[in-house]
Amino acid sequence: MATSAPAGLAPEAGPPPSRLARFLDSDLLASFRRSRLAMAAFAATVLFFALALLAPWISPQNPYDPAQLELMNANLPPIWAGDGQAPFWIGTDDQGRDVLSAVFYGMRLSLIVGVLGVAVSGLIGIGLGLVAGYAGGWVDTAIMRVADVQLTFPAILIALIVDGVAKAALGGHMDANAQIALIVLAIGLSFWVQYARTVRGSVMVEKNKDYVQAGRLIGLSAPVILTRHILPNVTGPVFVIATINLALAIITEATLSFLGTGLPETMPSLGTLIRTGNRFLFSGEWWIVAFPGLALAGLVLAINLLGDWLRDALNPKLQ
Amino acid sequence: MTRTQTGDAPMTEPVLSVRDLRVEFATRRGVLTAIDGVSFAIGRGEVLGVVGESGAGKSVTGSAVIGLIDPPGRIAGGEIRLGGERIDDLPPEAMRRVRGRRIGMIFQDPLTSLNPLYRVGRQIEETIRTHTDLSARAARQRAVDLLAEVGIPAPERRIDGFPHEFSGGMRQRVVIALALAAEPELIIADEPTTALDVSVQAQIITLLKRLGRDHGTAVMLITHDMGVIAEAADRVAVMYAGRVAEIGPVAAVVGDPLHPYAQGLMGAIPTLAHDADRLAQIPGAMPRLSAIPPGCAFNPRCPRAFARCTVDRPEPLAVGSHRVACHLYDEPGKAAA
Amino acid sequence: MLAFILRRVLQSVGVLLAVGLIAFAMFRFAGDPVNQLVAPDTPYAERLQIRQSLGLDDPVLVQFARYAGNALRGRFGNSYQFRQPVSTLLAERMPATLELALCATVFALVVGILMGVYSALHRDGALAKLLQAVSLVGVSLPTFLIGILLIFLFSVTLGWLPSYGRGDTVRLGWWTTGFLTASGLRALVLPSITLGLFQMTLIMRLVRAEMLEVLRTDYIRFARARGLTTRSIHFGHALKNTLVPVITVAGLQLGSIIAFSIITETVFQWPGMGLLFVQAVQNVDVPIMAAYLLLVALIFVSINLVVDLLYTVVDPRLRLSVRRAA
Question: Is residue A237 part of a domain?
């Protein structure tokens, strides 16, 4: 029996090809080529990322450097509105800050916070999901109970509370980098549940399959089995969740900043720019709020469309 | 043997007559022909069994008769007459009034045929009131009578039950009551017993047969179960790849099938007389709609195919009491061989 | 049935206890409460005395029990910013939030269901496709951006509707309502649309998807085979079956609407609980934060409970399985 078991398992001994590998095969690409909307969304997303990455080199001005701001140039309208002047193509704010530069830098910050937030929530969620699914028993119950409770509350509320609690604990005095870290943490703690549930479900399915049992038989440790053999199977769904959550994370950061509990005005993200620009809506300087708003809307919409398409293409049943 | 005993329409005006029916589905890969040149007729109080493998076009034929072919499908040719009147070209609203009123339909799965959120009585009453001028009170009384007629015990009480409170067999009885609600001339029963327990199947078939006889209703009984056909049908049509291979009185077709496909199908019924080991199987599978071979659709699987079968499409021929679409009977020498 | 209700109520109490623990931890451990109460130059001995009088030296469990007991009686302490009891502050602002949430919900439900049904029945129509596209944009855009856009259009550019506040309100006992004055009603329009838009698109997409699903079911086919009128099939059979899951989602969304009112209230400077909470977070006003958290948890849990019970009333199949389980 002992000798025949490995032979019997041989065809299934290795994990099935990972989702990521299947991802890149022709079906997905073909579906991508068929969907003009997906291609447009992808192009827009790439453009936004490029602008954000290159912000320090393509912006006419460093909006974080007070020395570069001239009050003389304050409240200039966009270039096509008569009083506008180069190089302030889409106008300046009340500090004389170039709106275009501010938008590029703001987008950079929004994307940094969004990506980091998604990474943190993914790490927390995947980790807890793996543990819950593999360990089972009371560990599983405890983790999933917390997930259930958290899921009854909207993420923005959780993020606000994490933010508020941290500020209360730290006394409310933080520099900009600490603020960024705090927002990333708040987003991470708000969005982990979906990863945990998905990963846990896959683990529960996979762990009883022959190849995992075979791995156990030959003495692989739990962490090795989890990361090498089970994790590759959940790459696809996790990637979809991450894409959709990137849009949500960006919205959450923007909302926190808009509410005044996010990034400070000295280091404005798109949300902060909209918050400050909103004040000028009634005095006619619409461009201070409109362009950051458009940038945020375009960014979120592009990523959302991409995520929607990815979800449908990969797995129509995935929620 | 007189002409009335053949596969042709009975002498009196048939309740349903279908001639050269053709149903097409427009798909991305071109137009598929699901039903191609199907003709048959059903008389008053007669049960026509329609058999064939899944995908042979039995259900599509039923849907075409009751006017429920949804886009991208459409009736592309032929004609359907109900009581002599053409119904395949009726405008939607007129066809709606035919459905339920003059043609009743019974679906395969009684579990999913009834709206789970409506009481059984309400579903029967709304059908009655849609098609008749009965008052609410009279409609309810008729619903109770119908439930009693299909054999539901304590109908006055059960009429206020929800579908999930009925067993599978009882639910199929409710579905039959619904199909009968407006005293239709024709009932199309699409696999009415497939989803039921074996013990219940016979009861439902007996009920259908009795109701058809009592009300003089024509019944089109679609099934893949030869046992059901042998039990309930007066005549039987064997369908293959959207065409009628053979049609005739049930005793003749079951006892002495002529078409090689029908012969294979009958050979596949286990009977007590035969040894179970000798259960015959037809090699191969029915072609997909997109790949129906030229000539006779059955030719790739036919043990007796010859050159002409791959070229000419066989037309139905009267042979004894049967009508069979097979070249073997066009050349008597071959048939005997 | 009774056992089912009892079990659900127990679960709800469990959730509330968990949230209460978080609120308590926030209250107790996030910063020293004594610092918030006394002047910075208060001597150490006096601080110790205050600590003792506040019971901050008691075992944690005793403190939690005391906190929970106080919370049950609506005592959440005094706000650091306003130096007033938190319960008074919340009670003052609750009508504003609830009226806004009610209008937003009605808007989301009515418009969402109408649009969903329309786009399911005319799946390939131009208007249905447009609605789908608009709904995608609606789901994607952050709430505050929509609010700002509406203000820009209807307040700044057209000048039709007010951009902030509740307008004139009428006092009915302890409740203040904006429903009884023209300016109060006008003030409700933009915030309600802003708050309800996300839920509306959600409901529309859900109704459309469910309706398409239901239209494919056997019982709808059977209803058609019985010759029922299109109207009675679509708006009787199909819609009723569609609404079962919609009720659940819409009910659960009511909680989200109250939570999301934080954002809408900030955009429109709407004097409700959400605005109070945002100000509390900005100013690290822990008693208000803790109380708001508990209140929102209570609202969420109650809504979940009611939705669950309502669901069993609407769907007879569930009623039966519940009866059997009980």
Answer: yes
**Which chains form contacts with chain B, at 3 or more CB pairs under 8 Å?**
C
Closest residue in A to C18 (Cα) is: A149
Q: Is the interface score ipTM higher than 0.90?
A: no
Identify how many contiguous H helices and E strands chain B contains and give both numbers: 12, 12
Residues from chain C that touch B181, judged by Cβ atoms under 8 A, are: 226
Question: Cα–Cα distances in Å, from C292 out to C19, C89, C276?
Answer: 11, 11, 9
**Among partner residues A163, A172, A247, which is closest to C140 by beta-carbon distance?**
A247
Residue span of the structural domain in which A245 resides: 36-48+97-318
Q: Is residue A88 part of a domain?
A: no
Q: What is the pLDDT along chain A (319 residues), one digit of tens a residue?
A: 333 333 333 334 445 555 555 555 556 666 666 677 788 888 888 888 888 888 778 777 777 776 666 666 666 666 666 666 666 666 777 776 777 878 888 888 889 999 999 999 999 998 898 888 888 788 888 888 888 778 777 778 888 888 777 777 776 566 777 888 888 888 888 888 888 888 888 888 777 777 777 777 777 777 777 777 777 777 778 888 888 889 888 888 888 888 877 777 777 888 888 888 777 777 777 777 788 888 888 888 888 888 878 777 765 444 3
Q: Is residue A13 part of a domain?
A: no
**Residue B256 DSSP one-character state:** S
- Please give the structure tokens belonging to residue B14: 């048939």
Residue B75, φ and ψ in degrees, nearest 5:
-80, 115
Contact A312, A319 (CB under 8 A): no
Number of domains in chain A: 1
Q: Say if the Cβ atoms of B127 and C232 lie within 8 Å.
A: no
CATH number, domain with residue A40:
1.10.3720.10
In angstroms, the separation between the Cα of residue C173 and the nearest Cα of chain A is: 31
Note whether residue A3 is domain-resident: no
Cβ of C232 and B130 within 8 Å?
A: yes
B window 166-195, beta carbon within 8 A of C: 175, 178-179, 181-182
Which chains contact C through at least 3 pairs of Cβ atoms less than 8 Å apart?
A, B
Helix or strand (DSSP H, E) at B221:
strand B218-222
Nearest to C293 among A156, A161, A261 (CB): A161
